[in-house]
């Protein structure tokens, strides 16, 4: 497989249950935690311009 564009979308939008998604994401239980963290980061960024939130393991800093 070459580049897998848009792989982040099932994680960001919580669509891990859709048919065929596990072909690209695998089926480990950690996927749901990663999905929740990514979704919350995008929501936080959209609301206040900062992707940090309580569930992140490490704070994102501005370079």
Automatic annotation (TrEMBL):
InterPro entries, A to Z: AB_hydrolase_fold (IPR029058), CarbesteraseB (IPR002018)
Coiled-coil ranges per UniProt: none
Domain of life: Bacteria
Pfam families in UniProt: COesterase
Domain Carboxylesterase type B, residue spans: 1-61
Protein name, UniProt field: Carboxylesterase type B
Organism name: Parageobacillus toebii NBRC 107807
